[in-house]
Amino acid sequence: MAWPDWVALGGYFVVMLFIGLWSHKRVSDVSDYFTGGGRMPWWLSGISHHMSGYSAAVFVAYAAVAYSYGITIYVWAFLPLALATGVGAWLFAPRWNRLRRRYDVASPLEYLARRYNIATQQALAWSGALLKVFDVAAKWASVAILLNVFTGVSLDIGILITGVVTLVYCTVGGLWADALTDFGQFIIQGVAALSMVIITLNHVGGFSGLGSIWHRLPADHTHPLVGPYTAGFLTAYVVVKLFEYNGGMWNLAQRYMATDSAPAAKRSALLSAALYLIWPAVLLFPSVVGPVLMPHIADPQQVYALMAENLLPAGLVGLTLAGMFSHTMAMASSDANAIASVVVRDIIPAVARRGRALSARSGLLAARICTVAFIAVSMVVAMEASHFGGPLGIITALVAAVMGPISIPMLLGLLPAFRRWGSLAALISWGCGLASFVLVKYVLDSTDQTLTIATPLATSLVLYLVIGLLLPQPSPAADEITAAVSAAADIPAPEGPTPPLVPATD
């Protein structure tokens, strides 16, 4: 890279660190650290939700699919996100916000101890935390590949640089730092991506050349579903993302909890859904037409970086790299904040008596220590990402497959229709769903992506529904919680706020 590129990249990192230090002044307790104190504007929450939903994997793993298969990447990877987030705007986003306001919770899993029991809460907390280590590791590995192409820095050093910068600003500033840097990253990434699209268009004949470019692409590049990305794969992916992007990915639930009201949470979800409908098409356009401009790339994971390096002028290359960094740092920092909230609010109180009565200062210190530990462990795993199938293998085969069993009891437990579903349905569906993934992936050694994703999802969903119907476990706690997060709960109660959640006795 030329010196203007290094200036752009260095300036980006300085701004991120400055935002983290500024946000530090807004954090006085765990509520501020994990949910922004419930004061986040809906538009900032919506942009943060969107930016936290995908990372540099877009420019590595997904760009590779776009280069190799064409527009199918938009059809199966991003349309489901827009659909899921749009549905969640009505079904889940307001409920997460009411849950925070009615019960003063700071973790998406905090309500599960009362809704089901402590065993269910702990099962979902521990397995979900472990899953997110691998998910974030895939993001570090993705951005390291990009940095290697642009600068020649080794993968391990690239992981270390990105992780340390993210570690500093999100540990110091909490959710406010995450959201504000998400907004700054959205602006930077927007300028970089639009520049890349304009330059790419110029090389294919401008807007007038769009009509003919499709005829110059490989024959199957304009097919919505092609190769391993079948209708069955798409169906499973849609259902997985419905749960994942409405709270199964804990950091996204936090964005809804951080707004000041249920209507604001709904608006933030609709904004995020609109961005998922439009923005991925802009990001992936250069990779889709990549076979015309740069055919025969040996490693498709490098296509976006190689196109930027060869097509963009000095200065814009560094800005584009900063834009790629932005997605990874946005998702990783928000994931770290979410995991810390689960550890501090859900896991520590269950395993250590002293953790149930932490002071504001001790709770905040514990939150920051957990954030540091999570990012550090994920960086170590990222350095061994090739052993788990690389970034795309982790994202599609591991995270997408395991997300269903973890998120189904959590999300459906908020809905009144499932208020009679108890811990038996939750734990069996969770355990059997994870066991079916291990069976398909590691015992049967299946390479069928549809089977890998659909089996644990279907197993968990069917068992949750059937067991809840055949062996209902009605409880006053479940009735209370599902009623408290319904639309009727927005009507002020004259008797005052609902008391804090207390774990149900088994």
Automatic annotation (TrEMBL):
InterPro entries: Na/Glc_symporter_sf, Na/solute_symporter, Sodium:Solute_Symporter_SSF. The chain crosses the membrane at residues 6-22, 42-67, 73-93, 124-151, 157-177, 186-205, 225-243, 264-283, 303-325, 363-382, 388-412, 424-444, 450-471. Keywords: Cell membrane, Ion transport, Membrane, Sodium, Sodium transport, Transmembrane, Transmembrane helix, Transport. It is found in: Cell membrane. The keyword Transmembrane helix applies. It holds the Pfam family SSF. It is a multi-pass membrane protein. PROSITE patterns: NA_SOLUT_SYMP_3. Its main location: membrane. Belongs to the sodium:solute symporter (SSF) (TC 2.A.21) family. This is Na+:solute symporter. It comes from Streptomyces graminearus.
